[in-house]
Design brief:
two-stranded antiparallel ribbon; alpha+beta; 5-stranded mixed beta sheet; Alpha-Beta Plaits; 10% strand; 12 helices; 7 strands
């Protein structure tokens, strides 16, 4: 059964919805065809015209289904072809009205269902035009039959039918407009909620000033990398970076310049590191760089190049042009070592680099 559904409706979820909608429309029209032949059986409607009407109606709906199933409809603005299907069904209903004679009142609920079918898909403006189209179409059918068959379609009865149609069908369009506005509000609320959740996730994982991931999220990523390396046997390196003499920058130029330095260094460092590396603000003027699948000699070369790029950077803020250097302590994770121990060795290496002088990098033993 599932395989048959996949053949009929495809496995594309969007296409399945469109085809399911088209299939439901076909079932609705098939029920209308069955009702028409009931009226033929009881002698109300003529056999041959109803047979031709049935064939045309079912063939038309099958064509719509085929256009959607083949993917041809994707070239058009409305791939579901909802409006064309409604236009066709309403025209088919108007023709049925001319064939049913005494049973023509059965067309009205079918027309209402056809319009209601579009309430959940088409826009309020489209529904207004569809209701006007339906009123004019059925009104024309009533006028034509009154002129050609006045005994079977007496004027006084057709006027009453037209007043009913002209009242009820626009009411459907008004309900559709209200439903559409409710759908729009619901979509907007979902979009607003999604944005709020995205901002919340961003705030819980990102440092507000630099835009880098924060310490809390970095610890999670480091733990994941640690577990991955345990399984794969590969190694990774941690580099702790600290801006040299950052306190005098704040004292000489103000905290606004200090914040600009932190932001500029973070952005430049993020541009220089590999895509697979992860850079985080560790706290204050410290940053932590995690380099996956990397041994210490290769990591040191990349770290020194990064230090050179950061040392060449000049941060402009008002009249101030500030340049700083960065010291770094690098530690390669040793198999069987805890993450905390690797961090301790990187911290010790940073302290040693700071003691030697600004802009130095030391690899932990």
């Amino acid at each position: 059964m599932n395989r048959l559904l996949d053949v009929l409706l495809t496995t594309d979820p969007v296409q399945r919805v469109r085809l399911a909608q088209a299939g439901l429309a076909m079932l609705l029209m098939s029920a209308g065809v069955a009702a028409m032949h009931y009226f033929v059986a009881v002698g109300v409607a003529p056999f041959e015209p109803v047979t031709w009407w049935s064939a045309g109606t079912l063939l038309g709906m099958a064509v719509f289904f085929g256009l959607i199933r083949s993917g041809v409809s994707r070239r058009w603005a409305e791939p579901s072809l909802t409006v064309p299907q409604i236009l066709f069904a309403l025209a088919s209903g108007a023709v049925a009205y001319t064939l049913l004679g005494a049973g023509r009142g059965a067309v009205f609920p079918v027309v209402m269902v056809v319009l209601m079918f579009g309430m959940f898909v088409v826009s309020p403006r489209q529904m207004r035009w569809l209701s006007i189209y339906a009123v004019l179409l059925l009104g024309s059918a009533m006028a034509f039959m009154t002129m050609t068959q006045p005994r079977q379609y007496p004027l006084i009865i057709e006027v009453g039918h037209f007043l009913l149609v002209a009242t009820m069908l626009p009411a459907v369009s008004l309900l559709a407009g209200r439903l559409s506005r409710m759908r729009h509000r619901a979509r907007q609320q979902r979009a607003d909620l999604a944005q709020a959740l995205a901002r919340l996730r961003e705030n819980t994982t990102r440092d507000e000033l630099t835009g880098l991931i924060n310490k809390r999220h970095m610890l999670t990523l480091m733990s994941q990398e640690h577990q991955r390396c345990i399984r794969s046997g590969q190694s990774f390196c941690l580099a702790l970076l600290d801006i040299d003499r950052f306190k005098p920058v704040n004292e000489a130029h103000g905290y606004a310049v200090g914040d600009a330095v932190l932001t500029a260094l973070a952005q430049e460092a993020q541009r220089q590191v590999r895509v697979s590396d992860v850079l985080a603000r560790w706290g204050g003027e410290e940053f932590l760089l995690m380099m996956s699948d990397t041994r210490a000699p290769l990591a040191r070369g990349g770290l020194e190049r990064l230090q050179q790029r950061l040392a060449a950077l000049r941060i402009l803020h008002g009249a101030a042009a500030v340049g700083v250097t960065v010291s770094a302590g690098l530690a390669e994770h040793i198999a069987g070592e805890s993450l905390e121990r690797t961090l301790e060795r990187a911290t010790a290496a940073l302290a040693e680099a700071k003691a030697i002088g600004p802009g130095r990098a030391v690899v932990a033993s």
